[in-house]
Amino acid sequence: MKPVLALVGRPNVGKSTLFNRLTKSRDAIVADFAGLTRDRHYGQGKQGKHEYIVIDTGGFEPDAGSGIYKEMAKQTQQAVAEADVVIFVVDARGGLSAQDHDIAKYLRRVGKPTLLVANKAEGMLQGIQISEFYELGLGDVLAISAAHGQGIRGLVDLALEPL
Ligand code: GDP
Ligand code: MG
């Protein structure tokens, strides 16, 4: 069985962009605004001789009204249940939000192996800007840039390491 990596995080942090990097495909719709990807998407990727499956999340019907957060939470839960490793994506530029805390709390409770990744960190890879994310209580923070392809190889190495 190929290991399954699930990308979770609040809208607009760059999950679908990372999905495309990890799968070298255009399966997920990359939105210039939050929430265009309407369904979970599955893709396949390979690094060296290691193959893996990636699940993108974040889709919900735009007209779901008050159901939006519920639907997002449901998708996250399903993806986490299917995953061997969870990649929790936060926004290095946007900083921590209440939703990040909620997701972190959920992930700590579930106890699946989780990698905390601060995306959009191009130009600040050595910076201290990401230190606030240690607050989430999920261990080390890995700075990456999905859009610029920085830190992706290291991320896959770390994600597949325990498997
Ligand atoms: P999702 O809602 O989490 O799936 O986020 P998307 O992948 O749709 O990306 C949301 C926005 O962030 C888009 O405008 C992307 O171009 C942008 N984005 C994604 N990755 C990066 C990155 O590494 N750096 C920067 N500066 N922008 C990014
Ligand atoms: Mg998306």
UniProtKB/TrEMBL annotation:
GTP 1 binds at residues 9-16, 56-60, 119-122. It comes from the Bacteria. Residues 3-163 form the EngA-type G domain. Associates with the 50S ribosomal subunit. GTPase that plays an essential role in the late steps of ribosome biogenesis. Belongs to the TRAFAC class TrmE-Era-EngA-EngB-Septin-like GTPase superfamily. EngA (Der) GTPase family. This is GTPase Der. The chain holds residues 1 to 163 of 446 of the full protein.
